[in-house]
Amino acid sequence: MERIILHIDFNSYFASVEQQANPFLRGKPIGITGKSQERSVVATASIEAKALGVKTAMSTWEAKKVCPTIILWPGDPEKYSDITSRFNRILSEFTPNVSQFSVDESFLDITDEAEDYFGATCLAQALRERLREEFGDHITASIGIAPNKLMAKLACESVKPNGLTVVRKDDLIDFIDTRELDDLCGIGHRIKHRLNALGVETFKQLREFPINDLVDEFKSYGTWLHAAAHGHDSSAVVSSTQKGIRTMHSTGVKSYGHSYTLPQNTHDLLVIKRYLLGLADKVAWRMRRDKTLARRVSVFVRFGDFTGHGEQRTFNEPTANGLKLFQIAWRILSPHLSPHSHPQPTGRARDTDIGTTLSRPTSDRSQSSYQGLGSPPNDLVRLVGLSTSLLSSGPEQPPLFKKDRKMISVFSSLDKLQHRYGPGVWQRASTMPIEFKSRSSGFNYDHEV
Ligand SMILES: [Mg+2]
Predict the structure, then answer these.
(1) Rounded to an integer, what distance in angstroms lies between the CA atom of residue 267 and that of residue 199?
(2) Which of 124, 127, 82 is CA-nearest to residue 103?
(3) Could you tell me which residues are beta bridge partners of residue 9?
(4) In this predicted structure, what is the pLDDT of residue 363?
(5) How far does residue 143's CA lie from ligand 1's centre (Å)?
(6) Residue 105 falls in the annotated catalytic set
(7) Distance 414 CA to ligand 1 centre (A)
(8) Which residues make up the environment of ion ligand 1, defined by Cβ < 5 Å?
């Protein structure tokens, strides 16, 4: 039986929540930032700010440059997650088959409830009305309805903000052909460039491209791309009840990560190392708390001009050891940071990295996500991040050496302390000179991912 999937996506979510809460902000260009606005980015721009050229993830100074009248407003992650759970509770009044996709997006399988596309449209209208009653006029959502999740999301994207559209099976191909390749969830700018390099610029060309050649280029992803270009997607809407009650610390987590915007942009490798080690410990603690081990670590840096570099490494023995994660991360990151000598401070010569400076390899320019507006090149490091993936459930294999076994028992005690007294109850001596200021936002930068 043909399925009917509804995708709902709130418009300028954090910004519209604030506009709903505060009439002064309504109708104005606003940008939701972290707590420390000077060094933050715009996590969400209001519809008015977007119209004036402000984009998500722009630095606050750049947003001010583009839109001098913008009101920068510190975000309130707790409020947003509360609204997200209320919003998902309302969705589950309409069908038990609700799957949350992100903080402001969910999928609903409404095949049984709607019966046909007319029923689906009525359901969508009723859903909107219910959300308006609950949240008010200023928090709006776009809705796409289609035979599968991928197409429902693409449909929803096409009617932002605040639209509603239905794409039936027979109209899928015509609809896809009105969209750009990177409108599709799953085609990022890198995949798009690789497709372009193969001469594929449109979905029509993607459909006509021999599947074997796609598989040669993209492996199993090639099969997915081929199916996607035909509007096919067989993934199911798996609701949280089907998954088992999903708690914060249980199923569904695919990765753990932390990133941190440094208090000052820096060239100092030692400072960067210390923050990276601190981040690795934060990630490792969350993994041990969830009895999870990882076999992959990813590390990334962002420079003062918002270009960046990231890399990952997979290893055989799963771990939740912060020091190990840090060591692997540093090994893969450091060759990409070309240190050049710098006057050595005296008296601290034991650490060979002290006093070396860091400059970005020129190749990173090509990996920039976007360039600052006419700003001079700035290769000081602004942000470091580390995340783990390829997770399995623990516990870790007992190590061979007594010294390492001892460390495990030390950590299990430290973990108990942290569980009881919260983060910050212990810190490695080597990271003592650094201080993690309280997390400035629950999203985008400085975040758990
Ligand atoms: Mg949204």
Answers:
(1) 41
(2) 82
(3) 105, 142
(4) 41
(5) 11
(6) yes
(7) 39
(8) 9-10, 104
Closest CA to 26 of 136, 131, 128: 136
Q: 306 in helix, strand or coil?
A: coil
- Which residue is listed with tokens 């991360």? 329
State pLDDT tens for residues 133-152: 889 999 999 999 999 999 99
Go through the chain and tell me how many residues it has. 449
Contact assessment for residue 113 and residue 94, using Cβ atoms and an 8 Å cutoff: yes
- Element at 212 (helix H, strand E): helix 211-218
Out of 62, 105, 157, 396, the active site residue is 105
Query: Residue 44 C-alpha to ligand 1 middle, in angstroms?
Result: 9
The CATH architecture assigned to 256-431 reads 2-Layer Sandwich (3.30)
> What does the alpha-carbon distance between residue 102 and residue 12 come to, in Å, rounded to a whole number?
13
**From ligand 1's centre to the CA of 164, what distance in Å?**
14
Selection from 291, 316, 296, 445 nearest residue 383 by Cα: 445
pLDDT band at 436 (very low <50, low <70, confident <90, very high): low
Query: 3-state class of 388 per DSSP?
Result: strand
Q: What is the DSSP string of 90-105?
A: HHHHH-S-EEEEETTE
For Cα atoms 112, 115, 116, give the angle at the middle one, nearest 5 degrees: 145
Give residue 71 CA to ligand 1 midpoint distance, Å. 20
Would you say 103 and 81 are in contact if contact means Cβ atoms under 8 Å apart? yes
* Domain ranges for the chain: 256-431
At 320-370, the pLDDT tens digits run 999 999 999 999 888 777 554 333 333 333 333 333 334 444 443 333 333
Burial 67-81 (b: 16+ CB within 10 A, else e): beebbbbebbbeebe
Query: How is residue 383 written in tokens?
Result: 């942000």
Three-state DSSP class for 356? coil
**What is the DSSP-derived secondary structure letter of residue 63?**
H
- Inter-axis angle of helices 269-289 and 322-333, to 10 degrees? 140
3-state secondary structure of 219: coil
